Every structure is written in C-alpha cells, then in structure tokens.
User: Fold this.
Amino acid sequence: MSIDVETAARVAKLARIKVEPEALPALAQEFSAILGFIEQLNEVDVEGVEPMTSVTPMRLKRRVDVVTDGNQQEKVLANAPDAREGFFAVPKVVE
Assistant:
C-alpha cells in the first residue's frame, strides 16, 4: 500500500503533529514502509500458534500480600514543602 503526501498531511493533522511541507514526502514514504511491513506480517501463517505474553516461559516472582505501613515516613516527608506531626500540611481551601 502506498501513502501519498496528502494522506500523510491528513494523518499528521489528525495526530496534531506539526510537519513542515518539505518533510511530508519523507513521512509518506515512512508510512508506506510501515504499512508494507504490516502486509508482510499478515502473510505469516500463524495457524495453531497460541498467543503468548513473553518469549520465555517463566512465572513472575510473587511476594506475600501483606499490608504494611512501609516504615518510611521520614523518607516520604523529606521532600514535602510543609510537614507537621508526621503528615503533609496543605493550605486550607474554603469556597
């Protein structure tokens, strides 16, 4: 499939990407190359191939699901602009 300059300009506009007019032919060529690769992938026979989430068969490491306080109160509040009595202090907002 071939993408012309007008289509490339329309795609750039829809994506809200500013593309200079002199760069549109190169962008159209890149779009055409991408669509060509997709067409090439569509020719691959995947009949009987199960979908996978990773190329290596491994399980994720798990940890015990225990609720803790983290014991990092000082580290968490270290960068706070205003902390009082172990909590973030924020200005009062009343409307």
